[in-house]
Design a protein that fits this description.
The chain is of the alpha+beta class. The protein is 48% helix and 15% strand. Helix 4 packs across helix 5. Bound molecules: FE2/S2 (inorganic) cluster (FES).
């Protein structure tokens, strides 16, 4: 049986083949991970943040699919030079739009990328012991989804181990 290729648009494919800002950042101010290594869908975000809370540099590592790599890559481009408050307001929908749209079964891949970004922003303030008034106490949609995926992956990998 042959598998149907996913209907990725050319922009997603281009970003997947030539991702921008891919790789570890040695001098990152904050690092955040979303996803689960057990199922392979894992993303790490590195941010270098100035004293004025501006993102000077952003990079990522991804073990996810083409949609995950493309969305993470475009997020790192979008947030460069942004204030953390503005970067926080980026949603997975705006990211999906920025890559020219995603097949619906790939929405979660973009959500995971934005979830990792929001975790990084939250962790940055938590480490500093600061709680800016624009940062909601409740988890954002993308952070919640990332948690759900991680939980699901944990259950699946446990099940696989017990079935071995
Ligand atoms: Fe899991 Fe895309 S990151 S399928």
């Amino acid at each position: 049986m042959s598998r149907m290729p996913l209907p990725y648009n050319p922009k997603v494919l281009e970003l997947f083949r030539n991702p921008k800002n891919l790789g570890k950042m040695e001098d990152a101010t904050i690092v955040a991970v979303a996803g689960n290594p057990a199922c392979g869908d894992m993303i790490t975000f590195y941010l270098k943040i100035s004293d004025q809370d501006i993102i000077e540099k952003a990079s990522f590592e991804s073990y996810g699919c083409a949609a995950n790599i493309a969305t993470a890559s475009i997020v790192t481009e979008m947030i460069k030079g942004m204030k953390l408050e503005d970067a926080w307001n980026i949603t997975w929908k705006s990211v999906a739009e920025a890559v020219g749209g995603l097949p619906s079964i790939k929405f979660h891949c973009g959500i995971l990328a934005v979830g990792a970004l929001k975790r990084a922003i939250r962790a940055y303030y938590r480490n500093k012991g600061l709680f800016p008034n624009w940062l909601p106490g409740e988890l954002s949609f993308e952070e919640k989804q990332a948690l759900e995926e991680e939980e699901l992956a944990r259950i699946l990998s446990k099940r696989m181990r017990t079935e071995e």
